[in-house]
Amino acid sequence: MKNLITCVSFLVMIASCTTAVAQSSVSQIDPAKYNNPIIKDQYTGDPAALVYKDKVYLYAGHDEAPNDFNFYKMNEWVVYSSSDMKKWESHPVPLKVTDFAWARGDAWASQVIERNGKFYWYVTVSHGKIDGKSIGVAVSDSPTGPFKDALGKALITNDMTTHTKISWDDIDPTVYIDNDGQAYLFWGNTVCHYAKLKENMTELDGPIQTIDLPNFTEAPWIHKHKNWYYLSYAYQFPEKIAYAMSKSITGPWEFKGILNELAGNSNTNHQSIIDFKGQSYFIYHNGASQPHGGSFRRSVCMDKLFYNKDGTMKRVIMTSEGIQ
Length: 324
Ligand code: FUB
Hints:
With 324 residues, this protein is mainly beta. The chain is built from 1 helix and 20 strands. Strands 1, 2, 3, 4 and 5 form a 5-stranded antiparallel beta sheet that branches. A hairpin with a 4-residue loop joins strand 15 and strand 16.
């Protein structure tokens, strides 16, 4: 009997300890400490980060769709900067669709890159005269702008790419300057295109080529880590992010699988990948911000990214806490 009482008391003690542990881990989840989404003052999508000197500049499209509107309404791009990936400073709007006289709307995905002290911003917009989406370039002496149209016309228009009949295959530019100084532009929806850029960054330097990638939807992003080139992209629809690796920026690319799962409450995911101060980051958007967040009112988030010894990337774990 005594043994039975001792045993029951022991079990009660274990149970109360377990409850205390459970309660303490519940109380550790303090929403005030959630760093995702990192931009809380407006809806933003299509993040593109630039590491320049000791800061990260984060460019995004401004999702302006009203709560009952179920498509993109995007007229301008925004920029934020940070020295520690936790505190983000907002800057005045550096670029709008109206800065491109030849465009008629749609501030879709973009990327900024620096060359010789100038900042080139490759953007997706709808063309005013040529049916379909197109890619323009803006330039500035500062990463926070103001930016102005660098060309006075589109760099890529829908009639330059004939691999698919859709009118929105010329979207989502990503730019990379290789070690030998050669710059490349990658872009696409349904078909992944790429071409060399001249040193002036505003003219193509050769033919438009394509890359065959499984279930390529859109949002290519090129980055390099150690000796590998990575081509990540939106895979299927709704979108996951998948990636391929190569020893050369011109391929051949070897498909490596899924990097990020579906983003919460958003049919797109649109990633940007950088290394900053010894840590790798995966930056993306979801539709988690409430009360009105969703596929057309998105929020930029970021989480740490890790590599395996063989250079492959570990699956991203999306968190509310983000970068602490
Ligand atoms: O933001 C409009 C479009 O949604 C982008 O161009 C795509 O990448 C997707 O995120």
